[in-house]
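Sync notes, pocket subgroup
Present: LS, DG
LS reminded everyone that the earlier model was apo-only. Rerun requested with zinc ion included. Inputs:
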Amino acid sequence: MQKKTFWLIALLMLALAAIIVYMAPLSQNEISRKVAEIAPATDAWRAALPRDPAAATAAYMARLPAAATARSDAYFEGGYWLQLIGFVVGIAASWVLLSSRILVALRDKLEQHSQRRWLNNAILIAAFTLLSSILSAPLDVYQRYFREHLYGLANQSFGPWFSDFLLNFALAMVVGTLFISLIFVVMRRLVQTWWIWGAVLSVAFMAFMMLIGPTYIDPLFNTYTALSDEKVKQPILSMARANGVPADNVYQFDASKQSNRISANVSGIFGSAAVRLNDNLLKRTSQPEIEAVMGHELGHYVLNHVYHFLLTFGVLLVVGFAFVKTSYAWALRRWGQRWGIRDQADPVGLPLLAALFSVYLFVMTPVFNTTIRSSEVEADAFGINTSQQADGMAEAHLKLTEYRKANPSDIEEFFFYDHPAPKKRIYMAMRWKAEHWQAP
Ligand SMILES: [Zn+2]
């Protein structure tokens, strides 16, 4: 493939992304007429719920309008295909970058001007990030903008969405370039053991991002303010105090400018804790639901899920880096010369490294999902015991069906769910309620 062909493909991808953007508002009008809301439940309805968990779960599920279920099933199942398509597009982008030798040409040009290896490497890594993003732009725009509007889940018009997108991209570019540069230094200096140090560095990097995220990154996208409603705040702080979470305030943020999704988190690592909930949760749910959701989030903190996550992912990353090291060495022997990659520490091979890593991540998807899902089950159990809001928990999970298929098969859940299926979570709440039964 010639360099000219590469630029032609890149231009085509940008044009395709622009067409998708142009079509987005049209589809949104179409779909918003079809949105079916879940009718709110009354106290009388809750009082009449049967004690049997399966029957009570069925009563909750029966409140889902058929159109709403069809829509969220289609949205979520489409996501399965998008994972496959994303994987294939990533591999194709890597292949285009390698066979056009576009990075080889850039490397040779850079070396004519400067022999500072760290600088040349950083520029090559940044160029790889930029060029691969251009090649995947149509899919990105379709998935993150067009499709979210198509399903009535997004509120942002293209301008603000694109500005968030660019900001995200700029951050990824700076942080990613620094991190990958470091990995290449390790690859050059520690030829035999770089894969272990790569995993160690990745875990340290993830911990660092978790540490600075709440304070320095999240406020770039949303405004965080202290929650002023004491009626909402005090019960949350009471749950935090009761479980030893070092938080003295609750913050709210304006997620509604991006989407309708209800969400909250208790983030923090190394002794810090930030209790935060979004304005959609405040607007769209009742106090019992808020308490159930915040109980769940406090659970992640109290149960040290951040550390479990780092440890488990550390192990999975060591295995991943080992796979990448072996397969990279094999691929270099075979195609290294054709693609102009001098040795393993040459950043020109980055598209190949990225492709191999994505193979590992793709194959391991169910393992990553199951790891996270197990923690979510624990947080649900913690949340319901702390908040004691069984119906609040069930009601919140019923609302989450707008972007998560409510009742998948077990095999589907194993492969694709990083949270338990909504129906199972409602059942969990009703089971707890049955064991703590008070005559209504
Ligand atoms: Zn959770």
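DG: The first helix runs from residue 3 to 32.
LS: The longest strand covers residues 274-278.
Action: DG to write up.
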